[in-house]
Amino acid sequence: MKPIWIVDDDQSIRFVLEKALAREQLAVRVFANPRDVLAALDDDGADGPQVLVSDIRMPGGSGIDLLGSVKERLPALPVIIMTAYSDLDSAVSAFQGGAFEYLPKPFDVTRAVDLIRRAVDESLREAVSAGAQADTPEMLGQAPAMQDVFRAIGRLSQSNVTVLITGESGSGKELVARALHKHSQRGAGPFVAINTAAIPKDLLESELFGHERGAFTGAQATRRGRFEQADGGTLFLDEIGDMPFDLQTRLLRVLSDGQFYRVGGHQPQKSNVRVIAATHQNLEERVRGGAFREDLFHRLNVIRLRLPALRERREDIPALTRLFLARSAKDLGVEPKRLVDAALARLVAFDFPGNVRQLENLCHWLTVMAPSQVVEAKDLPPELADGAGVPALPAQAAAPARAAAPASMPTLVGGPNWLSDLERDARSLLEAGSPEVWDQLTRQFEAKLILTALDVTRGRRIEAAQRLGIGRNTITRKIQELGLDD
């Protein structure tokens, strides 16, 4: 395993962490400033880090700037940012730059070592996953609907036309976008993805278009946005239907003439980018409702690819299950599990409201939790073990993201009682005129989900995020927003 790199101008911090990690039999290399780190990365003979732990304020350079430079060279490297200045701007800048975690000083050494351990585990998992992906096909699908998608990707391989991918959440829209990029003339250029629904409105403009130094509090250096990062390649705008209306105007202008301004900037920037957008929503309805610009819709809707839900391609479930079980086993360093015919039949009959992502998470659950190498029907999780007898969600309780799902979509474990409780509480708050009812109930729901997942995984955030079907940065951000951190 490669060493942990520690960057801090405080010699005592370097000493304490080096000794603590040495006791854990982890190799360590220490640096006093960012310049030495970048020089070491430039040195062909230097072994890069497994994890980078950096202070945020140091003479001769900023940890945030170092984070950006390192991420350009090593995008998958987990970076932990330390600082004695525990302010919002520092935290936002760290996570915007792709930090694995944010560690305020003074910190408990044991907790710091546990965090570094988690980052090491993530780094090793990413490396194994990259190797597994190299040995497996890009996409699987024998169903006619998927063959239509494959043919469309082939036809678009020589085109730079804008593409709009539609389909339910978890159906694999980003995978299709990556395939479109890889097989296009821009395949050698960067593929940059951004989920417009996952970033707060106040940060999304800077994330897309970048900002100039001093544009706002915490903008200590000029930062390139996603459009500049994707120059010569492809920019994937996921969940485009949730983009704030005022930003839709700026996006339309970029798509029209290729020019934009950084936040706080006065010089126009140009970027040669192919845009691929995706959404699970009905954009025509959002246009009619005034939530989405009609001219932007027509600009994006040049070629539309509809990705089928997993329940529309049930014949692909056995092959996908074998692929995900093999990939999960390789990630965990164990032998892959095998499903008996009865168990596989249950999977094929299940509607999978979470689509391919839900099936992948299920396979990871089986790899960890199934008691034997051969998985029988009784070993499946409760929502599948009961087969067709699982109760359905009431139509009025269906989430907006699942509006197009059929009425047979199974409810969560525990039956519909929780929905009745939710309806009662919502009605009580609404009739009482309570402000921000949506935010109140959503925060309670998210907090309960995350706390339960952390309890199941014994505090392991990465595993909790995987089981919930969200990204590691998302769970970290939610834990901070909801005040769930210790």
Briefly characterize the structure.
This protein has 486 residues and is of the alpha/beta class. It is built from 20 helices and 16 strands.
List the total number of helices: 20
Report the CATH C-level class of the largest domain. Answer: Alpha Beta
Mean pLDDT: 81
Instruction: Give the overall silhouette.
Output: globular
The number of domains is: 4
Please outline the major beta sheet: 5 strands, parallel
CATH topology of the largest domain: Rossmann fold
What helical percentage do the residues reach?
40-55%
**Estimated share of beta-strand residues:** 5-15%
Q: In terms of structural class, how would the helical and strand content be classed? A: alpha/beta
Radius of gyration: 24 Å
Just name the CATH architecture of the largest domain.
Answer: 3-Layer(aba) Sandwich
- Tally of extended strands? 16
- For the largest sheet, list the strands in their spatial order: 2-1-3-6-7
Low-confidence stretches: 131-135, 387-416
Question: What would you give as the CATH superfamily of the largest domain?
Answer: P-loop containing nucleotide triphosphate hydrolases
Distance between the termini: 30 Å
